[in-house]
Amino acid sequence: MLKIVVLISGTGSNLRALLDASADAAYPARVVAVGADREAPGLQHAEAYGIPSFTVPYGSYDSRAAWGDALLEQIRVWEPDLVVLSGLMRLVPPKVVDALAPNLINTHPAYLPEFPGAHGVRDAIRAGVDQTGASIIVVDNGVDQGPIIVQERVPVLPGDTEHELHERIKPVERRLLVQTVLDIANGLDLTALSTRLPASIKE
Ligand code: GAR
Predict the structure, then answer these.
(1) Complete domains list, the chain, with CATH
(2) What is the pTM assigned to this prediction?
(3) Closest ligand 1 atom to Cα of 169
(4) Residue 115 — left, alpha, or beta (φ > 0 → left; ψ -120 to 50 → alpha)?
(5) For the chain, what is the mean pLDDT?
(6) In what order do the strands lie in the sheet with 29-36?
(7) Ligand 1 center to residue 203 CA distance, Å?
(8) Ligand 1, atom 8: nearest CA belongs to which residue?
């Protein structure tokens, strides 16, 4: 059984999808704890499922590194096989990435490497593109630059607001995340993905 810690900042709809999936005895992964960098509304999903949660408030630490050390300490309590960044709206310090890689994955509401960063949906609308997407990646020390595990296109419709587009991307993210965790539990080799050279170097 794959043990997962999920880290969130927001509403936790992707977390909820993982919790719902792991309620099925046949699903080979379990969320063992949920962590947040603030009093995130999504922590209620952990409570609803009776899953332990922890909060490491970013503002309580003098530096990103100190926050990262406290976060890592909390994560390690649960001895997870995989850590999922599921709407954690903070850059994770290199020490944490290095300690967890490659068993650290992130969901992103765009078709990476397009529109990385904290405003992937807004940036796609502002760019005027007619399609964007959802991606699940292995986290490295770049901003949304790690190896792509899976991604899927989502159309941008005329007049879409950021909220409307995001609400159409999220169900795709949820499906890809649940499938990715299943694939990892079934032996998908993240190490092989992590050592893959970026396309620009390969060519
Ligand atoms: C998701 O769309 C996730 O990809 C995004 O935040 C949302 C969280 O939704 N993450 C990022 O943009 C990270 N750069 P949720 O809290 O409802 O799961």
Answers:
(1) 1-100 (3.40.50.170), 107-203 (3.40.50.170)
(2) 0.94
(3) 2
(4) left
(5) 95
(6) 53-55, 29-36, 2-8, 82-85, 104-108, 131-138, 148-155
(7) 31
(8) 87
Is the Cβ–Cβ distance between 104 and 86 less than 8 Å? no
Tally the residues of the chain: 203
Is pLDDT at 203 greater than 50 in this prediction?
Answer: no
Average pLDDT (143-151) is 95
Q: Which residues pair with 10 in a beta bridge?
A: none
For 135, counting Cβ atoms within 10 Å of its Cβ (0-12 exposed, 13-18 middle, 19+ buried), the class is buried
What percent of the chain has pLDDT above 90? 93
Is 81 in contact with 2 (CB distance < 8 Å)?
yes
The pLDDT, as a whole number, for residue 202 is: 44
Per-residue pLDDT of 27-47, as tens digits, reads 999 999 999 999 999 999 999
Q: Residue 196 — very low, low, confident or very high, per pLDDT cuts 50/70/90?
A: low
Residue 144 CA, closest ligand 1 atom number: 14
Averaged over 132-151, what is the pLDDT? 95
- Ligand 1 centre distance from Cα of residue 107 (Å): 7
CA-to-CA dists, residue 200 to 3, 166, 203, angstroms: 34, 29, 6
Reply yes or no on whether 108 is catalytic: yes
Phi-psi sector, 183: left (phi>0), alpha (psi -120 to 50), beta: alpha
Q: Is the pLDDT of residue 201 over 90?
A: no
Q: Is the CB of 145 under 6 A from ligand 1?
A: no
